[in-house]
Design goal:
The chain has 368 residues and is of the alpha/beta class. Helix content is 42%, strand content 21%. The strands form two sheets. An eight-stranded mixed sheet has the order 4-3-2-1-5-6-7-8, sandwiched between helices.
Length: 368
Amino acid sequence: MRIALIAEDYYPQLGGVPEHVHHLALQLNAWGHDTTVITSRMRGAHSDAPFVRRVGTSLVVYANGGVSRITLGWRLGRQLEDLFRAGRYDLVHVQGGLVPTFGLLAPLAAWRVGIPVVATFHSWFPRSAGYRVLRPLWQPLLDRHAALIAVSQPVVDAMSRYFHARWEIIPNGVDVQFFQPNGRRPTDALARGPRLLFLARLEPRNGLGTLLEAMPRILERHPRARLTVVGDGPWRGYYERRARRLGAAVRFAGRVQGERPEYYGGADLYLCPTTRSSFGVTLIEAMACGTPIVVSDITGFRELVRGGGEAVLISKDDPAAWAETAIRLIEDPARREAMGAAGLAKAAEFAWPRVAARILGVYERVIR
């Protein structure tokens, strides 16, 4: 099968969608399918895999406390149409349906060439003025898709406020061969000092400020505690200035890609105070490394964790609660060991071969 995966968000930008697209392409190609990732040109040093094609230029847009992207280019729709025709694809799979730019232009280009379109929706949102206004125009576009996938029930709930559709829920996946425990023991937190991890893009909606406010209380109880901040973004300077008063207790590691399992595996707790998410790819990455997690009690995370023993859910904007929860877990190695074991079991449910097989099943149904 010849498949085109269309992604507005892709490397060198890091995040759940780039990880989803890249690993889906790897898995499909490993099974013998001819899969191409079509994305836009972005600033930043990076080297592309052989299966990546770029068209147009990506621009960063700051909205809703985070970073989004749109792609611009002269006759961009025609460029996509030419790519689809030259590639002789059996199917076009758009990541982020109904979202400018590729989420709208790619389906139109594919239909002009006579190629069926599958779309995966990744975003949860409380409301959308744009969807409310444009619903009469976009509902017919949604109706033309051959299949619609959502990564979680919260995504379905958000989209269903504005559109009628038949959704199939297929979650994000995780590479359980890449993300694995590295041998740190639960008792090391007390013997060597607690190691805490924040890993996300540095933008307000990911909640790093909550952890920086919680750290003084954690340090009062555990002076050797260290918080490693993994990630980068336009707000990095702002957070570094906020962290200066904490001295060596907070370290900014910057942008990390291949070393992520080492950071997860070397942490006694992965702290994720994100205020908005539809799923939580970093959560299943941490689980696959056997790392206990503390996460915000928000819609997307609540759906993923479902009261499981691998995580503790707490209020998203309460530094005191984050500090007390971290202290309590630091001082309970047995519970953290049980959380790590539960996380390993949960991560296995999201291994990429299992997730990709479900997506491939959708493709086969559409082609038939």
